[in-house]
Amino acid sequence: MQPTIERYTTNAGRRLYRLPLEVFPNFIGYAYLLVEDERTVLIDAGSVMPQSVDALREHVETVREEYGEPVSLETLSLVLITHGHIDHFSGLSVLQEEIRAPIIVHDLDIGILHDYRERLVMASKALAVFLQRAGVSEERRARLLEMYLSVKSLVTPIRGVRRLSEAGDLLGAITPIHAPGHCPGQVCLRIDDILISADHILPRTTPHLAPESITPYTGLGHYFAALETIQHAARDVRLVLGGHEEPLDDLVGRIEQIRRSHERKLERFYNLCSHPRTIAELSLEHYGKRQGYDIILALTEAGAHVEYLYQRGYLTLANVDDVEREPNPVLLYRRA
């Protein structure tokens, strides 16, 4: 059963509507509509998929017709994007002709909205190097890169996007908190006693992390640091609303669960490196055999944890002579 619109009220009386969208087949994400007096802010815009775009239009109409709020896409005061992943912003590719409000995103993600194809192509070059060093065969690398680039034509450039650093008074009661790791420019948004956590903190799953060697400001080190920032900046919030899954009422407890989950993974990868291993071998050992795009997710998630251990001196290279001699060899990691 599809989730329905939910209304929340902050301790200052601001109304926040959670709008469920099928951003990918059988995968629900949430946009949010913040209403106070005559001001309305759309937080995230779902995906470019027709079912997501149609649902967003319908939900805004429902908030107007059934909840009596003076809202429409055409009269929004602001659109605020939490991060540059297509299930959170690409609906604007279709809706930008209807939306006249300023569109704001963190400075580190503005290039993604301006030209998604360019950023994807550039990231694919770094991904190709990562996959080769991870020990993925040439034939399999070609298939994975084709899959990775298959969505590049879905998202057209979003015009007129502004940087979060220049937003000034446009944000009103919203306090953004930079939370990189899952995405370079991801922000969580504090609105009185409610935190919109985007994909940084979810109640049941931990967000996917890729190595910083592929995309700067991603990776486990940035993610851990952002968890610490959120814990200090929003530890007294009453409710956490994420980009996916159900609401959460114990932010500090959930942060501790997430930390322990990653610490267990780090220990597992460290122990697996009792003898020289490639990232491809470690991924298969830890996550098992995966299919489709899940192969890329498993390889890059393993890579993020190995990168963290290597950066901090827990792992070392077992074949440094090969690295010195060859242009881009497979990397073998072992415990330091």
UniProtKB/TrEMBL annotation:
Domain of life: Bacteria
Pfam families named among the record's database cross-references: Lactamase_B (PF00753)
InterPro entries with a match to the protein in the record: Metallo-B-lactamas, RibonucZ/Hydroxyglut_hydro, Sec-metab_biosynth-thioest
SUPFAM superfamilies registered for this protein in UniProt: Metallo-hydrolase/oxidoreductase
Domain (Metallo-beta-lactamase) ranges: 28-244
PANTHER family, sorted: ENDORIBONUCLEASE LACTB2, METALLO-BETA-LACTAMASE SUPERFAMILY POTEIN
Official protein name in the record: Metallo-beta-lactamase domain-containing protein
Organism, scientific name: Ardenticatena maritima
